[in-house]
Write a structure and sequence with these properties.
By secondary structure, the chain is of the alpha/beta class. Strands 8-7-6-9-10-11 form a six-stranded parallel sheet. The chain has helices at about 5-20, 35-40, 55-65, 80-85, 120-130, 150-155, 180-195, 205-220, 235-240, 250-260, 275, 290-295, 320-335, and strands spanning about 25-30, 45-50, 70-75, 90-95, 115, 165-170, 200, 225, 245-250, 265-270, 285. The protein folds into two domains: about 5-130, Rossmann fold (3-Layer(aba) Sandwich); about 150-335, Rossmann fold, CATH 3.40.50. The radius of gyration is 20 Å and the shape is globular. α1 (about 5-20) runs parallel beside α5 and α9 crosses α10 (about 250-260). It is built from 13 helices and eleven strands.
Length: about 350
């Protein structure tokens, strides 16, 4: 079971595909409709869709849906009250969860086994669940078999720039503390335009994100193509496969882009990219986490899993550092062109 968020869903999907490909299990994924909308059908996976846990009504609905099922093993791959709320209705002999260092919200009371404790990327943690079922982690982790839906007609309706390399920018994260500054985004976008790139902005339809991205556009000398709120979730992976690079803070779009093979410039200061960054693909990311932890965290228990909750943390990322990553990807693409058709 993994309900959200979208970045975690994409990371977890790699492990789910591994379970299916092993041929040893009948796999059900208990999740929300948003997950299914993003991922589409996965051959060999039975999606069991439950409502987002928000109160008594959803509690009763989860119980109604899940009472028809019984499992040999539950991989409770989410440590949160919402996930625990749903897991209460799941009948399973084994309930495997996280170790104590990654547990929260009384996680240990909802499991009877746990994965080994270690400092590792979220994706490696999900594969630790498969290891508990006797599967070896493959040398190369991937998402082959994901995003198989046919969306060509819908994609054609999106007016993407033609004839130029495309930089996609997803400026707004789910928490404002993860956002880089509007002025900094604008400077990088202006530079990209000067280098001959086309730039598109992506993002969701909530008012905060719409306003933030609109302000980014207004701050640019030449406004990018603003697709904020116009991209269906089911189309996002296909859009990110079409573009040549993505610039974003710690958001789910980073993991989606990496899953479809698009180079990512990730901006990190609030969270540890060794934990949450693009998996084994941080060559183009800008990492200020350790510096932010040193300057802005008063906690005595600083760790691999710490978060820096300070409004100035992301300002540690310099415009020139991000521009150098744009240049590095352009150089890489000129040596190893990528077919985005």
């Amino acid at each position: 079971m993994r309900l959200s968020a979208l970045g975690d869903v994409v990371l977890c999907a790699s492990m789910v595909l591994h379970l299916v490909k092993s041929g040893k299990f009948k796999v059900s994924w208990i999740t929300t409709s948003q997950t299914k909308l993003l991922l589409g059908d996965i051959p060999g996976v039975d999606f069991i869709i439950v409502p987002k846990p928000k109160g008594l009504k959803s509690f009763l609905e989860c119980r109604r849906i899940l009472k028809a099922y019984s499992f040999d093993c539950l991989l409770l791959a989410q440590a949160s009250f919402s996930a625990h709320f749903v897991s209460m209705h799941i009948k399973s002999k084994r309930k495997i969860g996280f170790d104590s260092s990654r547990s929260k919200d009384l996680h240990r009371f909802f499991i009877n086994e746990h994965i080994d404790g270690k400092e590792e990327h979220f994706l490696d943690a999900y594969y630790s669940f498969a290891h508990k079922l006797g599967l070896q982690t493959p040398a190369e982790l991937n998402w082959e078999g994901l995003f198989l839906a046919k969306n060509n007609k819908k994609m054609q309706k999106l007016k993407l720039p033609q004839g130029k390399p495309i930089l996609a920018v997803n400026p707004s994260a789910s928490k404002s503390e993860r956002n880089w500054t509007i002025a900094s985004y604008a400077k990088v976008i202006d530079y990209a335009h000067q280098k001959g790139l086309a730039v598109v902005l992506t993002g969701g339809s909530n008012i905060t994100e719409l306003n933030f991205n609109s302000e980014v556009c207004s701050a640019c000398l030449l406004s990018p193509v603003n697709l904020t709120g116009e991209i269906e979730l089911s189309l996002l992976p296909y859009l990110l496969k079409k573009v040549d690079m993505l610039l974003a803070p710690d958001t789910g779009s980073i993991h989606i882009a990496h899953a479809v093979g698009t180079p990512v410039i990730g901006l990190y200061a609030v969270a540890n990219p060794r934990l949450t960054g693009p998996y084994r693909a941080d060559e183009f990311s800008v990492n200020k986490f350790d510096l932010a932890l040193e300057q802005f965290s008063n906690s005595k228990n600083k760790s691999f899993y710490s978060r820096v909750h300070h409004p100035s943390a992301m300002s540690l990322i310099q415009i020139g550092e991000v521009i150098s990553k744009v240049d590095a990807i352009l150089n890489r693409l000129s040596l190893l062109p990528v077919d985005k058709k």
